[in-house]
Amino acid sequence: MAENIKTARILKFDIFRYNPAEPDKPPYMQRFEVEEAPYMSLFLALNQIREEQDSSLQFDFVCRSAVCGSCGMMVNGRPALGCQTLTADLPEVIALHPLPTFALIGDLSVDTGRWFRSMVDRVNGWIERETEFDRASIEAPMDNATADKIYEADRCIECGCCVAGCAVANVRPDFLGATGLNRIARFMMDPRDQRSEQSWFEVVSDSEGVFGCIGMMACDDVCPKDLPLLEVYSYVRRKAVASLFSSGEDHPARREAEKA
Q1: Domain 10-110 is classified in which CATH homologous superfamily?
Q2: pLDDT means over runs of 10, the chain (260 residues)
Q3: What is the structure's pLDDT at 97?
Q4: pLDDT of amino acid 255
């Protein structure tokens, strides 16, 4: 009996093309065909296209193992990492676009670094202490449960998928998004940070922070690292509401919370 041999699929990639350095040439979609190989990822397919068909194709990659976050892109309308997405899980026709909300460099390449640097500066995304650092002191102890929570938040690779999938971030460029709130939560939980709750809530308790989220939670659905973003959002919101109502002040964020 003849063996059944599975014929490799011919994948059709419809890829967004636009070079901001050539503004007179409008954006367009270009089709490339690639023979599917076992365990082929989008990263491997795109490299094959660039090496064999069009060396001008722009897309980003560094680690190829879902750690650096560089290869985020829209895959059939959904944010995903190119290195983590297998073609076997996709149909034969695959549409690739750059992540929205970020400045376009060219084709599938976007500048996430500028957005994330701005976000970190806005939330002061680092440990702040009122006391001067003592180089001779021993490492501050931390219980395992707290350390685990901080580690979970620190797994964010800043790929931008949650931002690209967020309806609010797509229309309001100042919205911190899930990754901004995640970074805030990480330092709110850190016992080494000596900031007061009030200083945190001046950052997060407005329509550009935790009260700007409309609750669709697409961020939680598309996160390639499966971060518990719903829990992060709930944690920051609970802390914000508790602080606002305990203060008794007529703060704009309090009125936002009362309406929510």
Answers
A1: Beta-grasp domain (3.10.20.30)
A2: 67 97 94 97 97 97 92 97 97 98 96 94 88 81 91 94 95 91 92 84 82 90 94 87 64 52
A3: 98
A4: 55
Classify domain 124-259 by CATH number: 1.10.1060.10
Residues of CATH 3.10.20.30 domain(s) within the chain?
10-110
Q: What gap in Å lies between CA 11 and CA 14, rounded to an integer?
A: 10
Q: CATH 1.10.1060.10 occupies which residues in the chain?
A: 124-259
CA distances from 218 to 144, 177, 221 (A): 30, 11, 5
- Residue 239 to residue 40: CA distance in whole angstroms: 44
